[in-house]
Design brief:
By secondary structure, the chain is of the alpha/beta class. It starts with a strand and ends in a 10-residue tail after the last helix. The chain has a domain of 101 residues: Oxidized Rhodanese, domain 1 (3-Layer(aba) Sandwich), CATH 3.40.250. Helix 1 packs across helix 2.
Length: 156
């Protein structure tokens, strides 16, 4: 772990990708092997089946063509620590006040912390209610990086 001090606060981040790979494998096994995990996920993310999902490869292709806006809805501190290239940051808590910053003529792809996070679902509910088109990237920073894609700033 690497720590950064800001006054009396120390913010830690994982410095070794092996820890992220381990977490990803444990989570995958849990979802595949334990029925209770799927039920809990349904209760925690009840809207998860309501939105189109875009894959990492599809996202890359669409980004190159300028067809989408990639929206990071995590808290601003998390965006500053690491985010996907070309993403814009509008934290979920700020989205209602900043919705007009998003275009109406492009697909808005929201992402958050990954498949166990509900922020993107909540953001997409609001985005679609505003008359915009939306989709979700299920993966977060860790999964994106493990797939070999770059993040900003470069980690590991």
């Amino acid at each position: 772990m690497i720590g950064e001090r800001q006054g009396t606060t120390i913010r830690y981040r994982l410095a070794d990708p092996a820890v992220i790979r381990l977490w990803n494998e444990v989570r995958t096994i849990a979802v595949q092997q334990l029925a209770g995990v799927e039920r809990a996920l349904e209760r925690y993310r009840p809207k998860r089946q309501q939105f189109p999902v875009i894959t990492m490869a599809e996202l890359q292709a669409c980004m190159k063509q300028g067809e989408i806006v990639l929206l990071d809805v995590r808290p601003a501190e998390e965006f500053v620590a690491a985010h996907l290239p070309d993403a814009i940051s509008i934290p979920l808590s700020e989205l209602p006040a900043r919705i007009d910053e998003l275009p109406v003529d492009k697909l808005i792809v929201a992402y958050c912390r990954g498949p166990l996070c509900s922020y993107a679902d909540e953001a997409l509910s609001f985005i679609i209610a505003s008359g915009r088109r939306g989709a979700r990237l299920e993966e977060g920073i860790a999964e994106w990086r493990l797939a070999g894609y770059p993040v900003v700033p470069m980690l590991w």
